[in-house]
Structure prediction request, 62 residues.
Amino acid sequence: MNGAEIMKNAMDEFKDIQEYMTVAKEENASRTYAMLKKKYFYLKALLTSLGVNLTDIDEIKE
Prediction:
């Protein structure tokens, strides 16, 4: 897997995690939200290290 594929996969996962977090927050599923938040921070760190500007795609902003 090359760098572009890694970045695309991470961005796809980041988008999915944000959607799941939004639903978990709406449903007041705090334990689920906390678990998703860990993955969110991991993906955010990975994408930042790959040079992705998260300003426009980060909907959670935590």
